[in-house]
Write a structure and sequence with these properties.
Helix content is 56%, strand content 8%. With 204 residues, the chain is α+β, with helices and mostly antiparallel strands. Helix 1 links the parallel strand 1 and strand 2.
Length: 204
């Protein structure tokens, strides 16, 4: 398998999961300019990472890739403990992180895509940051009494949560009082697969 990624982007979640799987894989690093270049647009017409090539088949969309990787090793419990409810819980939090958190971050990272006036852009980004604090509070509540989102073992949702938390720190999103998230982030920072993926992407 080959992962197309940009350092620190949401593709880092898939990179972490590939490390957790412990199976051989390749990576292809892309710059922001290369994302929209003709070579990569043949792979993903949206010009976005991640993309995962497995033989002559290519898969895009982060959540789909994370689930596909998890299914390569059911014994790893990366989609929960194997029960239908556990899998549904992992998908619940994957969906929340992807559709609510990640989408809101787009308003912080690139408000100019939505508004042309600079003052309005700053207001939009500030309001989005406040919303992110509320969304992260829901994840903090979910982590109460747990090491990871769906129990004692990390799932693909935890890899994705870790990545958006790095964005929150980078953009100074207010996470005051969210002690469960802080403990989770520290736990993930110390994880061998996380360390390996970060090192490979030049983030250490």
């Amino acid at each position: 398998m080959k992962l197309y990624y940009m350092p620190g982007a949401c593709s880092l979640a898939s990179h972490i999961v590939l490390e957790w799987l412990g199976k051989p894989y390749e990576t292809h690093k892309l710059s922001r300019d290369e994302l929209k270049g003709p070579e990569f647009l043949k792979i993903n017409p949206l010009g976005a990472v991640p993309a995962l090539a497995d033989g002559d088949w290519t898969l895009t969309q982060n959540v789909a890739i994370l689930e596909y990787l998890a299914e390569q090793a059911p014994q790893s419990k990366l989609m929960g403990d194997g029960s239908a409810r556990s899998r549904a819980e992992v998908r619940r939090w994957l969906g929340f992180i992807n559709s609510d958190l990640h989408k809101t971050f787009s308003l912080v990272f690139a408000p100019m895509r939505f508004l042309s006036e600079e003052g309005a852009q700053k207001e939009l980004a500030a309001n989005a940051s406040k919303l992110l604090s509320k969304l992260f509070a829901q994840l903090d509540a979910q982590l109460a009494g747990k090491s990871y989102l769906v129990g004692a073992d990390p799932s693909v949702a935890d890899a994705y949560l870790y990545v958006v938390l790095t964005w929150a720190h980078g953009k100074q999103v207010d996470l005051t009082g969210l002690d469960n998230l802080a403990a989770f982030f520290k736990r993930m920072q110390e994880n061998g697969g996380v360390k390996a993926a970060r090192k490979a992407e030049g983030l250490e």
